[in-house]
């Protein structure tokens, strides 16, 4: 399979940096163009992430052809539409390893992209980033300031949802579960 166009969606997290490393290596090996996109959620300032995306593109573009795009809307839909419009051969993206309530509440962009994509999708597990997969020179060159804002409270965060909001979501879910179980034990009321 000849790859000419590779798409890298990024949220600027550590796991996305690892996916960037994989995508850049694939693009160099194949002589392909690397498309780097960041999707800003609806009803959010579209300029958020613009500066980071530009720096990201410059760093990755030192050894290969890079096209950057800042998109606005629902992430999975925007990523797959972009892939379809640009004739992308493969999408390389990270997983965040969410499970349980946070996955149920937030969904999985990667899972949705895999289902809707018009091309192959290579997923890079977040566990590799957490396990400290050996970084390349390119990933070491990425600024430590590659953070983004929490989608719940908009505070600077190294992940999609900051630790404080993640704890609050889990606590609220646990409280709701306890209330439901207590109501079930009480039985029907008159």
Textual characterization of the structure:
The chain has 190 residues and is an alpha/beta fold. The chain has one domain: Rossmann fold. Helices cover 47% and strands 18% of the residues. The protein is built from eight helices and seven strands. It has helices at 14-30, 50-60, 75-86, 100-106, 109-116, 126-130, 137-141, 163-186; strands at residues 5-9, 33-40, 66-72, 90-94, 120-124, 148-149, 156-157. A five-stranded parallel sheet has the order 3-2-1-4-5, sandwiched between helices. A two-stranded antiparallel sheet has the order 6-7. The longest helix is centred in the C-terminal third of the chain and has 24 residues, at 163-186. It is elongated. The chain starts with a strand and ends with a helix.
In short:
The chain is α/β, with parallel strands linked by helices.
Present the secondary structure layout.
Elements: E1 5-9, H1 14-30, E2 33-40, H2 50-60, E3 66-72, H3 75-86, E4 90-94, H4 100-106, H5 109-116, E5 120-124, H6 126-130, H7 137-141, E6 148-149, E7 156-157, H8 163-186
Parallel strand pairs: 1-2, 1-4, 2-3, 4-5
Antiparallel strand pairs: 6-7
Helix pairs in contact: 3-5
């Amino acid at each position: 399979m000849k790859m000419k166009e590779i798409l890298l969606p990024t949220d600027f997290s550590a796991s996305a940096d690892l996916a960037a490393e994989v995508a850049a290596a694939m693009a160099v090996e194949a002589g392909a163009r690397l498309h780097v996109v960041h999707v800003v959620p609806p009803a959010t300032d579209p300029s958020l992430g613009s500066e980071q995306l530009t720096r990201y593109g410059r760093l990755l573009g030192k050894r290969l052809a890079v096209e950057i795009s800042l998109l606005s809307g629902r992430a999975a839909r925007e990523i797959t539409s972009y892939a379809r419009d640009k004739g992308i051969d493969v999408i390389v993206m990270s997983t965040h390893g969410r499970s349980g309530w946070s996955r149920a509440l937030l969904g999985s962009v990667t899972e949705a992209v895999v289902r809707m994509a018009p091309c192959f999708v290579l997923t890079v597990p977040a566990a590799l980033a957490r396990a400290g997969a050996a970084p390349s020179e390119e990933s070491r060159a990425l600024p430590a300031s590659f953070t983004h804002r929490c989608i719940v409270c908009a505070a600077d965060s190294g992940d999609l949802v900051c630790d404080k909001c993640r704890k609050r979501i889990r606590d609220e879910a646990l409280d709701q579960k306890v209330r439901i179980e207590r109501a079930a034990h009480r039985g029907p009321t008159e």
